[in-house]
Amino acid sequence: MDRGPAGGRRVDLKLMRTPPPKERADAARNRAKVLEAAAALFARHGVESVTMDTVAAAAGVGKGTLFRRFGDKAGLAVALLDERERDLQDAILSGPAPLGPGGGDAAAPPSERLLAFADAYLDYVLGHLSLVRMSETASPGARYRIGAYGFWHRHLTILLDQTVITDGDAQAHALLAVLGAEHLTAMVETLGPARARAAVRGLFKAVAAQAAPA
Fold it and tell me: How far is CA 199 from CA 53, 130, 175, 178, in A?
């Protein structure tokens, strides 16, 4: 892994951003219809209760087309989450501080950006917990093959490498572990969303305090 200056690694981070799909106009229209139908069905009936057949019927497309395009419900979940992930990635790359880099006097230190990331990511994942869980657990290791995981990991590594914390690469993996949707689902079911959020945020806050300059 590149151990160069943070600025150089930030360019790498931009290259890791989830790209929007490139497709013909008719394919894009069909994709939009499918995702709109899936989002409505998931919201109304819950992710687990909706079948691919139901999505195909609601979207007015053939089952074969749906399976070829998305593979399974986990593929649909990933597609539905892509836009939300891109919005969060854009905010991290070029948005105002403390989530984004800001600029000049508005720039935030890495410790504040760590905590801002935790807050923003918790908003995202707890708001779409069933979908994120499905996308991350479709097969063994699925979470780590999703391109977005690499982006979140690199972002945290960049921030940690700018602090007194050693081995930011490993620390970033450790922090992301508590943000896994399967883990958060168990926490929410046991503790409720408010306590689960507070516990995870508290961990990031402790790391941010350690990362802050003396």
Answer: 39, 20, 12, 10
d(CA 132, CA 143): 9
Question: What's the pLDDT tens digit per position in 19-45?
Answer: 666 767 777 788 888 889 888 988 888
Tokens of 202: 């508290």
Give which of 195, 193, 178 is closest to 117, Cα–Cα: 178
Intra-chain end-to-end CA distance of the chain, in Å:
28
Nearest to 78, CA basis, from 28, 14, 145: 145
Dihedral sign, Cα of residue 118, residue 135, residue 146, residue 13: negative
Q: Which two tokens stand for residue 44?
A: 């109304």
Task: Inform me whether the pLDDT recorded for 116 exceeds 80.
Answer: yes
Burial of 173 (0-12, 13-18, 19+ CB in 10 A): middle
* CA gap 212, 214 in Å, rounded: 6
pTM for the full predicted model: 0.82
Q: What is the overall mean pLDDT for the chain?
A: 86
